[in-house]
Design a protein that fits this description.
With about 375 residues, the protein is an alpha/beta fold. The protein contains 12 helices and 12 strands. The protein is globular, with a radius of gyration of 20 Å. Bound molecules: zinc ion (ZN).
């Protein structure tokens, strides 16, 4: 078979990879920090305090404002070679469906440039905000793709959190709508976590009981790092049996701040997960918002952060880290036709580097970005050295 072409490009010395897949991004709250002056306006205090900041900030959001920031984020992501993205999106009694409407509009407008999946994320919990359940059902009718969740946002007025109740409700809603579940678990570090202290353990057991293996992604899983190796191994066995994808996010800057020695990194022992055969992805999570002042919608940058934090520095480990931003993330999102085989969608990136490790270490430019065979972006670094 011969294929016709509109254009021929010499890719000598470059690396062709399938498009980057951003598997976890809070697209509705992104870019709420000033682009020209990144950095936290105030020092980080705690997760609860940051949640309050976000919930205060969004009172001022209009649909237009969410659309404008989300579209700017997606344009920048495309420039960095992202061809598919899973967007977390607040749904609760306070904001109603405003965020879903905004992201749905942007998703439709940018169809053909980037594939977007919308996660209905109950920012105010499911038990704390019982009205969220019906709003989430409505969000699925409007086009939301995936069920979200996070036990840590379900803190009742008396300060208690029913972790298992939250996980069960989120999974039930996912099964009722026949959608995947993408849930934040073990968002904080604990001391000497026992097996049943780990949220991911309850999640895995419940997924197995319900027969929902392969339909669930777990974000963060940071507390896995607070368990002793034996407990961690048992937890990883359950994650494997439940077919849960683990999405690592750059929590290095958020977590471990109160550790006075042996400061933990907030990453879920990535190498052990990989060795056990768990599907591990790497994502940005938060970009330039109250949670994290960093990020550029650039997965090659997040890959370098992860490689440092997870002690993944051999050539093989760097290959694995690049896969976490491409093939593994695509598997977590269940993208169809992903890859470089001839029957796949032609979502591709040409990196100005000969190998994956050279791309990560050298932070290679994305020379060309293609979506469905269409050239969407070309980038070039220009340097002049004067003697
Ligand atoms: Zn998140």
């Amino acid at each position: 078979v011969t294929y016709g072409s509109r254009q021929e490009i010499d890719l000598a010395g470059c690396l062709l990879i399938p498009g980057f897949v951003e598997s976890h991004l809070h697209l509705d709250i992104t870019l709420t920090n000033p682009w020209e002056r990144p950095g936290r306006p105030e020092p980080f205090v705690s997760t609860q305090e940051t949640n309050r900041t976000v919930e205060g900030l969004r009172k001022g959001f209009t649909r237009e404002d969410i659309e404008r920031r989300a579209a700017a984020a997606l344009d920048t992501a495309v420039r960095h070679g992202v061809t598919a993205l899973r967007a977390q999106c607040h749904v609760d009694s306070e904001v109603g469906l405003k965020h879903v409407e905004a992201l749905q509009a942007v998703k439709e407008r940018l169809e053909g440039k980037v594939t977007v999946q919308i996660v209905a994320f109950p920012e105010m919990g499911l038990q704390r905000d019982p009205g969220a359940c019906d709003l989430i059902r409505e969000a699925f009718r409007m086009g939301a793709d995936v069920m979200g969740g996070a036990p840590n946002v379900d803190r009742m007025a008396d300060g208690t959190v029913d972790v298992q109740g939250h996980i069960n409700m989120a999974l039930d809603l996912a099964m009722e709508a026949d959608v995947d579940l993408d849930i934040h678990v073990d968002h904080e570090l604990t001391q000497n976590a026992e097996l049943d202290d780990l949220e991911v353990v309850h999640l895995a057991k419940r997924v197995i009981e319900c027969g929902y293996q392969g339909r669930v992604a777990a974000g963060h899983v940071a507390a896995l790092d607070s368990a002793v190796p034996d407990v961690r191994a048992k937890a990883i066995d359950l994650i494997t049996e439940a077919g849960i994808s683990v999405v690592c996010v750059p929590d290095l800057c958020r977590l471990g701040r109160n550790d006075v020695k042996h400061v933990r990194r907030g990453l879920p022992h990535v190498k052990e997960l990989v060795a056990a055969g768990v599907n591990v992805a790497c994502a940005s999570n938060n970009v330039r918002d109250p949670w994290r002042p960093f990020g550029n919608f650039n997965l090659l940058e997040e890959a370098l952060v992860l490689a440092n934090g997870a002690h993944m520095d051999t050539v093989d480990e760097l290959n694995a880290v690049l896969n976490m931003c491409t093939y593994n993330a695509a598997e977590a999102l269940h993208l169809e036709g992903y890859g470089l085989d001839k029957d796949c969608h032609a979502d591709m990136v040409v990196l100005e580097a000969p190998t994956p490790s050279a791309a990560i270490v050298g932070q290679a430019e994305k020379r060309y970005v293609f979506k469905d065979g269409h050239l969407l972006a070309s980038n070039r670094v220009v340097s002049d050295l004067f003697s």
